[in-house]
Amino acid sequence: MFESRGLRRFLRNRLAVVGVLMVFLVVLIAIFAPWIAPFDPLKQNYDELLQCPSRQHLMGTDALGRDFFSRVIYGSRYALMIGVAVVLLELAIGASLGFIAGYFGGIWGSVIMRLVDMVLSIPTLVLAMAIAGAFGGGLW
Questions:
Q1: Quick one: 92 and 128 in the same domain?
Q2: Which of 32, 70, 87, 116 has the most CB atoms within 10 Å of its CB?
Q3: Which domain holds residue 111?
C-alpha cells in the first residue's frame, strides 16, 4: 500500500510519527473544544475561586473561578488560528517578493534580497520584546 520510499522512511522514524500524532491530537482537541471542555471558559464562579486540581476541575480554577482545563482547550483554538494566519500572511508576502525577484531579476532581486537580509539580521527575541513594549503585554 505504501510504495513511497520517503513515507516508509518517515513511518520508521518513531519520533517523527509521535510528533505528527501529537500535532494531530492538538488540532482535534481545538476543533472539538466545545464538546471536550467541561465548563464555559469565560464563566466566572465566585464559589470556586483558586481551587486546587480535583475531579471536577482537572487543572484547578483561577482567581475568578474559571476552569483552567477549559481555558487551555479553548486557548489552543486561538493559538492554532493565530499560527495558521501568520503562516498564510508570510506565505503571501514571501511568494509575492519571490515572484517579483524572479520575474524582474537584476537590481530588483538584489534589493529584495538585501531587505530580506536586513529583516533576518534582527534577533527574534529583541523584536518580540519591542513589539510587546509597543503594544503592551496583554493579548487584547
A1: no
A2: 70
A3: 105-139
Is residue 126 located within the same domain as residue 78?
Answer: no
Q: Judge if 88 and 29 occupy the same domain.
A: yes
DSSP string, 57-120: STT-B-TT--BHHHHHHHHHHHHHHHHHHHHHHHHHHHHHHHHHHHHH-HHHHHHHHHHHHHHH
CB distance 22 to 15 below 8 Å:
no
21-56: pLDDT as tens digits? 999 999 999 999 999 999 999 999 999 999 999 999
User: pLDDT category, 139, cuts 50, 70, 90?
Assistant: low
Give per-residue pLDDT as tens, 106-125: 999 999 999 999 989 989 89
Same domain, 26 and 76: yes
120 and 98 in a common domain = no
Q: Give the phi and the psi of residue 37 in degrees, each rounded to 5.
A: -65, 125
Q: Which three cell numbers stand for residue 4?
A: 513511497
Question: CA separation (Å) from 20 to 2, 23, 29, 76, 84?
Answer: 17, 5, 14, 16, 16
32 and 87 housed in the same domain:
yes
